[in-house]
Amino acid sequence: MSRIVVHGLEKSYGDARVLERVNVTAEAGEFLSLVGASGCGKSTFLRILLGQEQQSSGVVIVGDGPIVPEPTPQRGIVFQRYSVFPHLTAMQNLLLVEDFRSGGPFGRVFGARRRKARQEAEAMLARVGLAHARDLYPASLSGGMQQRLAIAQTLLGRPQILLLDEPFGALDPGIRVEMHDLLTELWTEHGMTVVMVTHDIGEAFKLGTRVLVFDKVRHDPQFPSAYGATITYDLKLDRKTRASSHHLAKVAAMVGATRPDSAMATTAS
After folding, report:
1. Residue 244 pLDDT more than 90?
2. Which CATH number is associated with domain 1-70+188-263?
3. What is the DSSP string of 77-115?
4. What is d(CA 14, CA 229) in angstroms, rounded to the nearest whole number?
5. pLDDT reading at 137 higher than 70
6. Which UniProt keywords are given for this protein, alphabetically ordered (predicted)?
7. CA 158 – CA 186 distance, rounded (Å)
8. For the chain, what is the total number of helices (H) and then of strands (E)?
């Protein structure tokens, strides 16, 4: 279920083409980091993989068949903006995961299953540093805490494919490193296929097993939106060894990053 195959994908909005000629295969358990300039279609590509949007043409296969044109529990996502339920406490937000998954016609689990769901939720809150906030509503949490809660909610669902859209941008540096470690731990435990959009080159190299650069290769000065972005660079990484400064600098130059030195610092953290 967690293998992804994309062939000849294109996405347009009216006459404006956002993506074109996108071809990529992600084997089960791979971690793809997507980088590129703002507005080059990375998040659009992620929404297509989620089923939130449909491609204009091309083929997207998830597992053994074409992608289902709607979000499913097998595909979890963490957006850049916080996506938790404001009327529920932190604990209730996490309990809702099991309610949605196994609640049946009542939309809620009871008895032993409820107790087990609560234990798992408490353990996850502790892992993301929110044990003290279990009974607080999102409005009482900082932005970074809300994002940690959103990440916890998604990871608790144990999706086979995890989609991340700038999930760590709102977090303090120390918390971000902790979340990197947690994500890596859970990715290793559950063998998820991960596709992450990030503007942090160092983060892309630190977490990913592959770094994919999205960019436009065709341009029309009279009609800038005539052509879309595609994958211009696909670098496979060995997580046991650090990426070379040459590769970091090359990718940083491709996406217009002005501080490749900061990327090196992130990979070393």
Report:
1. no
2. 3.40.50.300
3. EE-SS--S-TTS-HHHHHHHHHHHHH-GGGT---HHHHH
4. 16
5. yes
6. ATP-binding, Nucleotide-binding, Transport
7. 9
8. 8, 10
Residues 6+ apart with CB under 8 A from 240: none
Q: Which of the four pLDDT bands, split at 50, 70 and 90, describes residue 261?
A: low
Q: CA neighbours within 13 Å on the CB side: how many for 236?
A: 5
pLDDT tens-digit map of 73-117: 888 888 876 678 999 999 999 999 988 887 666 678 888 989 999
Residue-wise pLDDT for 79-89, tens only, equals: 876 678 999 99
- Placement of tokens 């994958």 in the chain: 231
Could you say which of 3.40.50.300, 3.40.190.10, 3.30.9.100, 3.40.50.10790 is the CATH number of the domain covering 75-158?
3.40.50.300
